[in-house]
Amino acid sequence: MHLLYEEGGDIKVAxxxxxxxTGDAESWQATSLSGKKIKLKAKEVWLxxxxxxxxxxxxxxxxxxxxxxxxxxxxxxxxEEFGLVDVAQEYFGAQASISQETALAIALQGAPVFFRRxxxxxxxxxxxxxxxxxxxxxxxxxxxxxxxxxxxxxxxxGIFPEALKSQANQLLFSPDKNTSAYKALIAACTExxxxxAQLMIRCGAIDSPLQYHQNMFLKAHFxxxxxxxxxxALEQAVLDAAISELPLADVTAFSIDDSGTTEIDDALxxxxxxxxxxxxxxxIAAPGLAITKDDAxxxxxxxxxxxxxxxxxxxxxxxxxxxxxxxxxxxxxxxxLSIYVDIDLAGVVDKETLQLRAEMVPMGSNLRLxxxxxxxxxxxxxxxxAHYPYRQELSILxxxxxxxxxxxxxxxxxxxxxxxxxxxxxxxxxxxxxHFQIQDVDGAQRVEITPRQRxxxxxxxxxxxxxxxxxxxxxxxxxxxxxxxFRTQKGWGPLRTRMQTTPGPHEGxxxxxxxxxxxxxxxxxxxxxxxxxIAIAKHGITAKMVAPFPPRDAALMGIxxxxxxxxxxxxxxxxxxxxxxxxxxxxxDEIPKQIFVRHxxxxxxxxxxIPLHLPVPELATRPRMTRAEVSIADVDLLQLTAGVRxxxxxxxxxxxxxxxxx
Length: 662
What we know:
Helix content: 25-40%
Shape: elongated
Radius of gyration: 38 Å
């Protein structure tokens, strides 16, 4: 004997091996078509039969079930609950066969729109309203399936469907996986063996791998576009009112930046003192004088948190027109927040002479590193015959900068850290700074990557005096009991460097306090700190009463957390695009390209002339800085990977004193 039953929503057949009990208590040990041993009770069995054989029955019933007219079956079925055999007689007639009854069971079980399941082998037809709604839903689903299939075919053939073009970024970066569009995209990718990004590039929905990387970042951080809102500006009348009572500083200041810098937010001045020595001025552009907390420009700056830098372009925190109004451009007096400190003839800083002023600073020059850096040497700074701008002022700043650096290194050593070398690094060391220049050549983009070693005299002058400015600003905030955004570093581990609203040491820099304040045109943390410092400059000991952010301000704590997250994401994007352009540099000429790398650690190596890190497992056991010639091929600009093959590994030279005697 064979039994028809339902399991997991499917109609199945089993062959009886043994039986026990009678009536409603009867049960069977049986074997399913798959060979599984099962136990069935009487209430679980829909039909019992001797012939045909189970497999033949299921084959016949599967074919017959597809021919059943469900609408006619619904019309034939009674209003009340019914059994399988009862409705089979209504539909097929009194002599309905086992095959027909099984086919009907399959059809009923698979038609929840027409019939409700009321128990094993028991059904009730759905109310007319629900049936009509269900049929409409099925029709919509069928149309969606047909549309999905059509889209899939277009994508496979290299055509991006017109209806999906507005959804391209969403499909790629934040898809709703239940939509027909996404299902069509994934089905096409599976059929073609491509990733969604590869398929979209082939179909023209994305122009290039570069646009993929850019759009991924913009979708996450600038979903409404990176351009500033039209009309967003600082009214000249507002700026004039903010600076109308500022005194004019008796200095001539100059800035030192590279030629690509448009947000000039720091400058220096050197003024002789009658009693000997000099007064050093560190002048910071002062958007905080005209932009106020919670105004339109503040909301924009807070949303962006920082200027985003990447090869070939940048996304500014503030609108260009506002930057032009507030940047420390040469040729006129500009509003600034200035820190002054006196040094003696030996360059020693007198910390007790620290002053903070909001003022108008005459800007004499915007010096550019490319034009001056090669001229500024230890010898030329003391050579009266040397002719370049601000030679004497740079000489004085350099003397003091060396002492500032030495003092920080002493504190680093006290903190258990190694002292850092002053000046140019080992010329054989890998360069750490690079200039990316991207140009259109014959309709194609080419990139030139120029290394620049850190540690020049101009580098050190700017770095040490800006570090001093940030340190002095942190001390002023701490001494006045005013919160700010302090950059601290203490202890070890991944979270040792962080932003917090209370003062703390920065052990890596060898400082008791450190609060970013020297880039308020491009970092929101610096603008926030500038507001707090302006309160000190204008109100002194009562600054705590008028500062925009009082102690333990929850909003300031939120800004600290948001800034850290944004700043990290922006840095990751910059690294990603630098890696992209490095790989473009590798691929823009001959491929494979042979080039030298240096092993760093754990099989990761740095390409010598550009800031590209690539895994070279063969070097994993070699000493750090082992040099090898490699062949680069298979550059993938989407995955940002490249194939590396070792050509030659250089053997380190052994000093004569270490060589074994012949």
